Fold these 2 entries.
Entry 1:
Amino acid sequence: MRLLLVEDSVPLADELMASLTRQGYAVDWLADGRDAAYQGAVEPYDLIVLDLGLPGRSGLDVLKEWRAQGLSTPVLILTARSGWAERIDGLKAGADDYLTKPFHPEELSLRIQGLLRRARGLVNQPTLQAAGLSLDESRQCVSRGNESIELTSAEFRLLRYFMLHAGQILSKGHLGEHLYDGESERDSNVIEVHVNHLRRKLGRDIIETRRGQGYRFGTSA
Amino acid sequence: MRSIQQRLGIGLAAALLVCGLLLILGARWLVDNALRDYLGSGLQTESENLLVAVVRGANGLQLDEQRLNPAYQRPFSGRYFEIDAGEPRWRSRSLWDHVLERPTHVGLTRHLINGPGDQQLLVYRADYQRWGQKLSIVVAQDYNPLLTSFSRMLRLGAGIGLVALMAILFLQRITVRRALKPLERVRHQIAQLQQGQRSQLDAHVPQELELLVEQINHLLSHTEDNLKRARHGIGNLGHALKTPLAVLISVAERQELKAHPELQNTLRDQLEQIQQRLERELRRARLAGDQLPGVYLDCEAELPSLCTMLKQIHGRELTISYHFAPGLKLPWDREDLLELLGTLLDNACKWADNQVELTVLKKKACYEVSIDDDGPGIAPELRRDILERGARLDEGVTGHGLGLGIARDIVDNCGGALSLENSPMGGLKVVIRLPLRASSQ
């Protein structure tokens, strides 16, 4: 899952980057509204965390522009402005959720999880369920029935993406774009390696290879 | 204060009445004088005619009856004479048995003298010398018929004057009303302003009102700017304080601190306190209250979004329904009201099982907003406590509920009242009554 964090306060952004990366998200960070307006529309983000009080351009303006362009990426507004009137303005501008500062880091990660599932049309449950598997995002482990299986960080990220897109054909390039932030080196072999690891832990059939097209998760179940 | 129109009307009517009365009295005096003068000179001629009619006969002086006006022969004809030549004395036959009072002075008497019947006589006395004899001639004429027709004329004049007065008052009323139309329009616009139907006064007004309207508009935009600036400042302050606070709260949750649970708890508690205090004071500072007319909350535009938003926040199987008359606008600051409704609805959503209902009604004396939920409700004996303490009860639910405290602040600011009742849905019913503005009644 690749997120865009738009926040002008460096210490807060540092904290959030650290905590979100720990939770297995690939995070790009921008501090200026103008940069965000451009990059948010161009890069394939799965979710955008947007502060409203930005230098350059106000967050609400940026959000309105994205929605006018037809960008449907879920946007979570993060702001110090806590009035209901402002929340409604945010909602009208096209925000999907609204979190006021200060907040507990846990609250933010729960909101992000919820938004990502809602965007895929999934019910918001404590664990993510697909193809007979149930993924605990806070503990980063997966279980099938009563059997609990430990995952590495990279495997967790890949599996979460597969489970949120069960039944869809995902190319290596697509996976690379959504699993790594804009600064990492993208090597399709790495994805292949992680897919093999997942197959070894969860069974061969769990991820199907479609030659020339990519991978498909959860068709066997 | 009475209206300008009324004052103008009463003033004009009084002035016209006084003038009319003076005019009538003056006219009466002038015409009376002129008539008496005219009749006086007639009487003088008459006395001279009588003098000529006195001739010297065989037995001394004689009155030549042939030369007399026939009116002197007919009894009570209204024309009389009396000639006193010492001896003999002649009286006109028309006097009959009436004794004519002799004036003491020569010339026209000032007062009218009672004549036969109810006649009022104008009497003229002239003294002559003829043939070495003194002659005192008194002639009199009834003034009553003239006086009667003269009074009739005056009454007619007064009648016409009254009709004219009415007509003038009526025309004046129309003129004044037309002249005051711009004032009336401004008054109407100010009423609209207070009801939140407009935010500025129309600047197309007559010269006399231009400054006033300009000044009001200036004040309005000034107040609005001030409010905006204050809110912006508070927003910035909030931003400046809350972002570092968010960092601190995040830091307090770090793995490294988990080794020192005491330290972590103290940090959490203190940060929580700072956050609550900050939130409450900033919210209070943002309230606009009654200071700005011309603002409103458009129920149709805002309430559905608010409900959608609350549903999003509280997720689960919650039905939030709302009822209000189409086009209903509440004449208070949008942010204040949204804050109020948002806070109360949020509270209701926290406690409700699966239903929350918002109703906004415009009643005769107030706007009534009620929020019902089907949750556990609050026992009647606890309600007063909760209102007085500024709502501690709900603070436990999520840790940062300010609930009824802020709601009460807003309601007080708007001059309204908040009460807690039993909801027919089984839970709590929060009723807010906001007074109608004076001008919208």
Note: Chain A is about 40% helix and 20% strand.
Entry 2:
Amino acid sequence: MEALKNLQKNIVKSQIWKSIFRVGIPTDNRKRALAMLGNVVLHLHPIKVKKSGLRMSYTWCMGGTAFFLFLVETITGILLMFYYRPTVEYAYFDMIDLREAAAFGIMRELHRWGAHAMVISVWLHMFRVFMTGSYKPPREFNWNVGVILLVLTLLLSFTGYLLPWDQLAIWAITVGSNMARATPLLGAEGPGAALLQLGGTKLIHVGSDARFGLIAGRTIGNGTLIRFYVLHCVAIPFVAACLIAVHFWRVRKDGGISGPV
Amino acid sequence: MEAIKSLINFLSYPQWSFTLSLVLFWLAMRSKLLWTKAGGWVLLALITLFFGLAMLDPNFFVVVAKPDNVPIVMMVYLVGFFWWFAMHKAHENDRRIADGEPTFEKSESEDRIFTWPDLVFSEFICMVLLTVGMVLWSILLKAPLEEPANTSVAPNPSKAPWYFLGLQEMLVYFDPWMAGVVLPGLIIVGLMAIPYIDTNKKGNGYYTLKERRTEIWLFMFGFLILWCELIVIGTFLRGPNWNFFGPFEYWDVNKVEPLVNVDLSELIWIQILGVGLPSNFLLREIFGIVFTGFYFLVLPVILIKNKFVNRFYQDMGPTRYYVGMTLFLTMMLMPIKMYLRWFLNLKYFVHIQEFFLNL
């Protein structure tokens, strides 16, 4: 026991440790404050928080859970990208390899179940925010950022659904993307699309409508796969990460975790 | 047991289960007992007992135990729990307010606690627990992988991802441009509009039911009934050809459901007036157009006369009122259309196939 304590002391006092963690283990209030200020991750938090906002019975920890799952999805997603090739020839067989040949073969499981869990936790986070009236002034704008993040979460999950390139994937995306056909004005079978004509030539047809733009073709194929892959791995995560930053920043600027005003 | 199962199968059919859930929702929201700790335990026991017993049934088991459906069972439990929990906290605070005490949150919100160590460590513990949970879940349940994609063999039923099954269920009652584009768009717009429409200053930053009863009823109706319940129906009770199956029914591909849906125009011109359909589409659809116009343009004005609604009109002012009322009426279009379908076989109010404009 004594030896362990000595070891800890030696580590904490070493130049390496001190170069990373300036403050050391906080033992008084000044150091508790400095610990939060001196760390790029921790400084997202204020130095002090309302006791009521600290309680899990108030926050349900659902926003935090959603963010944590976003990180889990990012990390497992990056690992999956090492193996997965988004082309019709390889995609499905890379899935089988991920299951059969890759070491620590639970990355796909972590990614898939994490995605389901993230969708649910985002809904529950919204439910909590509604039930505590936390969208009310001054937090209206942040509620809106949250709604967009909710939509992005669903889109992330939707675009990821296609990537395994199995029957479930392709037909779920077929059902989902068929809706785009019916977009008013912009879908080939949508109300009003027939009105958009130029000298008797239809502007909106199956080769130019909203569904065509979404799935990059008349049917789901290689074009769709690469499109959804880029959306799933780069485009939507990029937008989501930016908005998460705004979301967190606004939580602080709007007065921290909500509480009675 | 078989008799109970067939009764549950019968009651599960949307016209009955939806009605039942509306009644139960109404009773639950007015109940006090349900939101006490004892009520919560009874509720948990009942749901678990149902799932436990039902899992013995092979038809139920095969649908619920699909790996991708496990999260939806989880969702039922989590949404149920947090519904109970939020109401429990709200009733506790309402009692405090009635007794002239500060709300639970108020009693603690003046207290400031250092983030280090309290918040940082609870976050850390949450992350560890979540990691353990996710890893266990991933080891125990393999991610499903079906046959390779084949554009020429459509599985029956073909389902959208589970979180969109509420929207797919709407397709039964609405055309794709409504169910797939306009209504989802309006859900997003409606959610974003909430903070600007809601002028009630009370209930900001603490749980309460009494101080914002209407808001909470509306939100819960949308979230619990129209979103979550329709997902559960779409996942567990919609089988081949999107036909309805009770929880203990075998998903028979050959089940035939006669569809004799009629449009409002046919209902009135042919069945009631006994004359044929007029050839001019505007004249043909006049009743539907008038109904829709009345519903969205006149009804909000008439409703202002209502004492209950008038209070909101006074608080919100005309702009907020009309925007909010339009969103509310759009939301209510869903249950209205469901009931008209079930009991009158109504397909469209307005059916102008000339422009693909069907409502």
Note: Chain B touches chain A through 94 residues (CB under 8 Å).
